[in-house]
């Protein structure tokens, strides 16, 4: 089993936020579906921090585990081919098995823009 970290960005305008919700589409739902297609098995992801409805992300870090024999290029391009245009994977890297997107973070940065 390999642990892989991804950097993602998204325009959250059409989503209920990061986490699954019964009433509306979520970023997590779309990302897991795309990665599951690439892996050819169900993939569950862990994020560094959840976002709320309508919130965007520029450099969200997530991780997942898979035993699918794919190189990082395949995860990157395969995920992007299966994601909607408002969600993108920026990079993919193999990480140690004890890496955790949330608990291994050494800093976070937020920008609030209020019109």
What would you note in describing this structure?
The chain is an alpha+beta fold and 115 residues long. Helices cover 21% and strands 27% of the residues. Strands 2-3-1-4 form a four-stranded antiparallel β-sheet, with helices on one face. The longest helix is centred in the N-terminal third of the chain and has 13 residues. It is globular and about 45 Å long.
Biggest β-sheet, characterized?
4 strands, antiparallel
**Number of helices in the DSSP assignment:** 2
| Number of distinct beta strands | 4
Share of helix, binned:
10-25%
- C-alpha Rg (nearest Å): 14 Å
Structural class: alpha+beta
Strand content: 25-35%
Distance between the termini: 46 Å
Given the C-alpha coordinates, what overall shape results? globular
Arithmetic mean of pLDDT: 93
Strand order of the largest sheet: 2-3-1-4
Low-pLDDT parts are none
Helix-strand pattern, N to C?
EHEEHE
What characteristics describe this protein?
115 residues; four-stranded antiparallel β-sheet; alpha+beta
């Amino acid at each position: 089993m390999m642990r892989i970290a991804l950097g993602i960005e998204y325009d959250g305008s059409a989503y209920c936020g990061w986490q699954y919700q019964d009433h509306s589409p979520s970023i997590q739902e779309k990302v897991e579906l795309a990665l599951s297609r690439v892996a050819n098995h169900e993939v569950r992801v862990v994020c560094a921090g959840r976002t709320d409805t309508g919130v965007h992300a520029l450099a969200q870090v997530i991780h997942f585990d898979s035993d699918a024999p794919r190189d990082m290029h395949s995860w990157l391009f395969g995920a992007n081919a299966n994601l909607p245009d408002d969600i993108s994977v920026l990079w993919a890297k193999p990480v140690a098995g004890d890496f955790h997107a949330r608990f291994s973070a050494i800093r976070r940065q937020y920008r609030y823009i209020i019109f």
